[in-house]
Amino acid sequence: MNEVKPTDIRDPEYFHKVVDCQYACPAHTPVPEYIRLIAQERYDDAYMVNWESNVFPGILGRTCDRPCEPACRRGRVEEEPVAICRLKRVAADNKTSILDRLPKIPKRKNGKKIALIGGGPASLTVARDLAPLGYQMDLYDDQPAGGGFMRSQIPSFRLPPTVLDEEVDYILDMGIHTQFNTYVDSLKGVLDKGYDAVFVGTGAPRGSDLDLPGRAECDKHIHVGIEWLGSVAFEHIHEIGKRVLVLGGGNTAMDCCRTARRLGGEDVKVVVRSEFAKMKASPWEIEDAQAEDIPIINNHVPKAFVHEEGKLLGMTFDQVEVVYDDSGKRSLVPTGEEVFFEADEVLIAIGQDNAFPWIERDLGIEFGKWDMPSVDQQTFQSSNPKVFFGGDAAFGPENIITAVAHGHQAAVSIDLFLSGKSVQQRPSPGVNLISQKMGVHEWSYDNLVTIDLRQKVPHVDKNLALKDRKVEVELGFDLDTAYREAERCLNCDVQTVFDGAKCIECDGCTDICPTDCINFIDNAPEPALRQTMRAPAGNEAQDLYVSGELAQTARVMVKDENVCLHCGLCAERCPTGAWDMQRFLYSVTKAG
Amino acid sequence: MTYAKPAFRHPDAKTNDVGCTRRDYEGGLSTLCAGCGHDSISAAIIDACYELSIEPHRVAKLSGIGCSSKTPAYFLSGSHSFNSVHGRMPSVATGANLANRDLIYIGVSGDGDTASIGMGQFAHVMRRNLNMTYIVENNGCYGLTKGQDSATMDTDSVSKKGDINPYTPIDLVRVGIEVGATFVGRSFSGDKAQLVPLIKAAISHRGFALLDVISPCVTFNNHQGSTKSYASFREHNESMPVDFVPRREAITTSYDAGVVHEVCMHDGSVLRLQKVNEEYDIEDAQSALDAIAHHAKEERILTGLLYINRDSEELHDVLQTAGKPLNTLSQRELCPGSRFLDSINAGLR
After folding, report:
1. Who contacts B19 (Cβ-Cβ below 8 Å, separation ≥6)?
2. Residue A399 to residue A68: CA distance in whole angstroms
3. Residue B16 falls within a domain, yes or no?
4. Are B92 and B130 in contact, with CB atoms under 8 Å apart?
5. Angle, helices A121-130/A161-172, rounded to nearest 10 degrees
6. A440 — contact with chain B (CB < 8 Å)?
7. How many domains does chain B have?
8. Is B13 an 8 Å CB contact of chain A?
9. A346, A305 contact by CB (below 8 A)
10. B186 pLDDT higher than 80
């Protein structure tokens, strides 16, 4: 039988995985690190930790999809995770000027020119990473200002333009040459200008339409969601009819319906094909929509636009039932009942696609399934070595933080490529592991675990919010609340590091551990080990930390990382310092 | 220093028959030295009470003075507790037990509190076979006063300062068997697999149960040359595994035939012991004393259940006291009137 080998804690990925939030973040932002800085009222420092990693702390602190929060360890020991996203906003809202902390841009350039196509988060991240290295960059976008879909699709009541402008300008002010209001209609044309590399960050710009009877006849009253949101953002549209139907269950649908409420929509309904539980929108966005008196009607499949000589009257839907077959496959079975909802206007927010009509197919860029370019998952290089993709343009619609992560990696590749190195040789992450011991029983972090529940973010008065689409709904945490919320963080980056050579097997750590994580047992194959532990380690997504054979009894120390509170009590009760609490800082290496 | 243990517990923590999780049996956060064996014994008491599904308020914990005697503050915070005078825990336990025979009495003492200042009371409470569990947290030194050798320190053991102990130790288990304890075990704080079932058996035993638990003092007696260090004790420990099987459960563990001994406890639970050899009869005092002495001669320390007498009369039987706790008796029963007093007086004339 195969006994478990001792855990190799020198592999940076082992402890990285213990920091659940950071591990889940596509850009691997060191979350506990900046939360501690917020608790210490060091907002500038907290902001810069974020800025280094995710480029848009103020924007993401309002709009991130928060993959970190479902991963948060706190959600496994109590009801709700730490409000990580809203703490990020606290850092952004309370910082002073950070201009002197931004990287210096060399006056003498390195002679290499890069074209960035699209002005969204992916392109901006590439620009931010490469400008300090002396690259010259031209950024093309068909919109009048930078930010891409962060500007055109995210309504102002969620993301004020001032916040967006500030963080976009930090980058554009690095000497990026911008060509706004310029639609690039030929990649060949760009390449012909003699750029050394081209980065394509054009997003997924095409909103899906719905070809149903009546669609063409009432075209005036029917809009594709993302296009309509863009027109509102750029002030081409100022009003909407009183009765509005929004089709779709994603975040765009939520933004559409809430914007409609602000532009004069009084009876706004969201109609979704499938059941509530399957909706793609973030739960908090759905909640916010419902709080603005917008009903969400599930299990209704759109059937036809009903009109009278081009004047929209409403829409008919087939009511359906969700049925799962034996293999778990889901189908929507019509109940036979047809439903009619009145409407003056309809917004279609049922998805968006990539579209590359402007890329010639003879440039050496291979296109594969769904007419998407073949892009390397790690290097973001296409089959034309000069052309790189990132953000939604690379692998389809994701989110801002994923686009940022792509941008960082593409920047690394572009820098390697233009330095004549292999793009496959990725730089190792930066890793730092330091003891937090300050005294006999004293730690440099707040190791006491508070039992406070998640703090709620206050909202502006609803009547005020619905009058003006530019009034931000969420007010953000005040500093006292932010501190209380920051203290809920379990400091999962402060690692429990075990040195078996020092252990005298006194059981002190096992006895004190509040969540029964630590065991001294005979080694066995992992499934058996997981069962013989004091609290069986059922969460297999979480690793076991296993020591080598111990001197006195030949047993091994086995720690289940799953619900470790990182409270440091094991290290406090250890007479020999075999346990130590060490802060693990992991940073994804950037270009240069 | 952390002064409060986090309130969160393992999300899958199970509850026992009385609806408590293991953490419901905890006490305050220990202020003993990190790595102290006493804390492991507290943890073993917590495990035993949790696994026996004892309601915490059915327990009275008693102690004297010393590091060991501080520990009742660190377990069973929902139980009755009395921290008495140095070496005088047995008399307080006797008084409490005579007043309320229904509680479970757990006394915690140390080698100083038991074998030095408390030796007199210790011997007499065993003679009387008071129904209680008496745990000695035995580290061979006076840890609270800088680690001087105690009366249980082995001859030739070296103190932290470098002095060699010239005196003969008191072996508490041998004293216990000689003087009349009816359940005598020895164990080690670093071996919960043996200690927890032993504590459960001791609690189930009707009569005086003595557990001498070697509990290394990490600060003053865990160095090379000490016979009561973690390493030295593990090296010389001749451990006899113990399995405690509550009445309702089927026996599943299997041992080699011949050396296995099953003891049916007073409450119907079963104790399965793996003896060190076939001849050893743990229900015979002389056999037990011989086995202990034989191993001691070979520098082995025998641990496990060493001796048991299941058919003894505990103090209440001997004194023919009331069958119920005094606090449940009515005023009529407690004060039956002058007619009864007259008849008692008449009997004494």
Report:
1. none
2. 13
3. no
4. no
5. 40
6. yes
7. 1
8. yes
9. yes
10. yes
pLDDT attached to residue B250: 61
State the CATH architecture for A207-352.
Answer: 3-Layer(bba) Sandwich (3.50)
The verdict on residue B340 lying in a domain is no
Q: Which residue of B has its CA nearest to A576?
A: B35
Contact B39 A449 (CB under 8 A): no
CATH of the domain at B102: 3.40.50.970
Identify all chain B residues contacting A504, using CB atoms and an 8 Å cutoff.
Answer: 35, 218, 222, 230-231
Quote the minimal CA–CA distance from B230 to chain A in Å.
7
Distance from CA of B96 to the nearest CA of A (A): 30
Residue A175 token pair: 């000497």
Domain residue limits at B304: 22-319
B193 near A CB under 8 A: no
Per-residue exposure over A568-586, b if at least 16 CB sit within 10 Å of its own CB, e if not: bbbbbbbbbebbbbbbbbb
User: Rounded to a whole number, what is the distance in Å from the CA of B37 to chain A's nearest CA?
Assistant: 7
Give contacts of B22 with chain A, Cβ < 8 Å. 516
Query: What averages of pLDDT result for each successive group of 10 residues across chain A (592 residues)?
Result: 90 97 97 97 97 97 96 96 97 96 95 96 98 97 94 95 97 96 95 97 90 91 94 94 95 96 95 93 94 95 92 94 87 91 95 90 90 94 96 93 97 97 95 93 91 95 93 96 97 97 96 96 95 92 96 96 96 95 95 86
Distance, in Å, from the CA atom of A14 to the CA atom of A35, rounded to the nearest integer, reads 22
User: Is the CB of residue B1 less than 8 Å away from at least one CB of chain A?
Assistant: yes
- Can you tell me which residue has the tokens 């949790």? B50
Whole-structure pTM value: 0.91
Q: How far apart are CA A131 and CA A124, in angstroms?
A: 10
CB contact under 8 A, A508 and B39: yes
Round to whole Å and give the CA distance between B307 and B322. 30
- Domain made up of A102-205+354-418: CATH architecture: 3-Layer(bba) Sandwich (3.50)
Q: Indicate yes or no: CB of B190 within 8 angstroms of CB of A506.
A: yes
Classify residue B160: in a domain, yes or no: yes
What order do you get walking across the sheet with A430-435 strand by strand?
Answer: A430-435, A579-587, A494-498
Interface touch A511/B43, C-beta < 8 Å: yes
- Statement: residue B249 has pLDDT above 70: no
Q: CB contact, 8 Å: B230 with chain A? A: yes
Would you put residue A55 in left (φ > 0), alpha (ψ -120 to 50) or beta?
A: left
B103: in domain? yes
What is the value of ipTM here, to two decimals? 0.90
Q: How many CB pairs under 8 A join A and B?
A: 106
Biggest alpha carbon–alpha carbon distance for chain A: 90
The three-state secondary structure class of A156 is: coil
Using CA atoms, how far apart are residues A571 and A579, in angstroms rounded to an integer? 5
Cβ B219 vs Cβ B33: under 8 Å: yes
- Cβ neighbours of B39 in A, within 8 Å: 508, 511-512, 573
**Sorting pLDDT into bands at 50, 70 and 90, what band is B1?**
low
Chain A residues closer than 8 Å to B35 by CB = 504, 506, 508, 573-576
Tell me how close the Cα of A434 comes to any Cα of chain B, in angstroms: 20
| Cross-chain Cβ contact B9/A514 below 8 Å | yes
- Measure the CA dihedral A189/A192/A197/A201, to 10°: 0
Q: Where are the CATH 3.50.50.60 domain residues in chain A? A: 102-205+354-418, 207-352
